[in-house]
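$ ./design --mode recover --in tokens.txt
reading tokens...
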């Protein structure tokens, strides 16, 4: 079976199911409480098993339902080593905020007090270049830090799942511009991603996907 990507528009973010010859994996897991929605989608595709929960970075809108999904499906959770501590503490490290990100950051501390994120310990700690073949999927991890220090992209076939390195929620796709633990690293990571020449880029928010030309254009802005 050829790879098939199913995009799920969740409350705040986007998650992806990747169907491959060995089964199906999940990329990102929405905010807390979205596990039912994700599970129903997996079932509707005809699967009763989930192979892996890959988390692009430790922000609540990407790992919020991961622990609940692991509880139900038994699927291991994988995240880059540098984001594992924040995730295990139920934290969302927004770094320094710019533009309207500043307001969101202030609101976030209130939201977190009333609606804490489940602390989520990863089963698999990823590093740049890790190959996921032993987990049944031909995929490679590309460390693309900046938004968070452990932000990673998953390269599968000719596609890349990039989390919040790139956002496509505005009129046109942009390199992340609201939150970063390291602003300079964002640019370096974009270049690294472009160097892997993905044909389809799946962002963590907004419309999708971006093509290779749109991706390269981001480096010129
Ligand atoms: Zn994020
Ligand atoms: Zn996000």
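writing sequence...
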């Amino acid at each position: 079976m050829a790879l098939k990507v199913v995009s799920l528009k969740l409350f705040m973010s986007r998650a992806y199911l990747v169907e491959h010859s060995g089964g199906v994996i999940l990329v990102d897991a929405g905010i807390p409480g979205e596990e039912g929605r994700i599970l129903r989608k997996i079932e509707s595709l005809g699967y009763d098993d989930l192979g892996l929960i890959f988390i692009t970075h430790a922000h609540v809108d990407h790992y919020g339902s991961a622990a609940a999904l692991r509880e139900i499906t038994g699927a291991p959770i994988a995240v880059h080593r540098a984001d594992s501590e924040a995730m295990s503490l139920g934290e969302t490290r927004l770094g320094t905020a710019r533009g309207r990100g500043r307001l969101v950051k202030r609101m976030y501390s209130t939201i977190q007090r009333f609606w804490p994120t489940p602390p989520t310990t990863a089963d698999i700690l990823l590093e740049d270049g890790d190959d996921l073949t032993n987990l049944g999927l031909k995929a490679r991890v590309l460390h693309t830090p900046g938004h968070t220090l452990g932000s990673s992209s998953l390269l599968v076939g000719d596609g890349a799942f990039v989390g919040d390195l790139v956002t496509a929620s505005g009129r046109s796709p942009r390199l992340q511009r609201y939150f970063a633990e390291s602003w300079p690293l964002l640019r370096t990571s974009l270049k690294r991603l472009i160097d892997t020449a993905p044909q389809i880029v799946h962002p963590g928010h907004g419309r999708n996907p971006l093509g290779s030309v749109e991706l390269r254009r981001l480096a010129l802005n």
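exit 0
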